[in-house]
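Much of what follows relies on a compact textual record of a protein's fold. A record is reproduced here so that you can trace the correspondence yourselves:

. . .
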Amino acid sequence: ARSAYTVGREAWHSIPVDTLFPRTLKGDGTGPGGADRVWTRLAVAPEGGCADALDPLLAKTLRTVGCAHVLRATYTDATASSVTTVGLAFTEADTDAMRALGARFADQHLDRRTDLLPRTYPVQDSPAASFGARQRASWSVHVLTEIPVVAFAVTGFADGRASTPPQPADRAMADGATTPAAQAGLGHEAKGLADGVERALRTHVADLTERPR
């Protein structure tokens, strides 16, 4: 059997895009108060690198693990009131390097810094047409350690309103949070979509890893 790291590095081109980013993605119990969510994919971005998908300091941070390929897609919720770009950054790192990166994110709270954000992928003639940098309201960045991938998502309002400053998903989801992003459940949107895409990747990497060569 192949290792999860070998399979994980190849997953960006070996797993079909509709598997990584389903046209419809369900998030059972992922909304505020445990409400169910359903998201519809608006478009898949062309394959690119960290410089295209991440703010400069976040791209620089992931350079330490050899960020090689980034896949992204933009979704909208069932009411078309929010839009979210979700992505996977595939690295060239080994287990020790990914664990070190994960520890750095945890120790230095890098996943909460507003200068380390994913970028949006706007989609013309859609609810995400005006989804730009100033529209980013909440976000999530998660370093995986069993495969060489960093999963991320960034969300905002579909009406194009600016959200300054953005709020990390865990804080937007906290009890008593009163920011517009929190009250609209945008932290739940970012985390729910990121978790769904990450779960699909984990499942298929595990399946490919168990198959004989």
Remarks:
- The first strand starts at residue 24 and ends at 27.
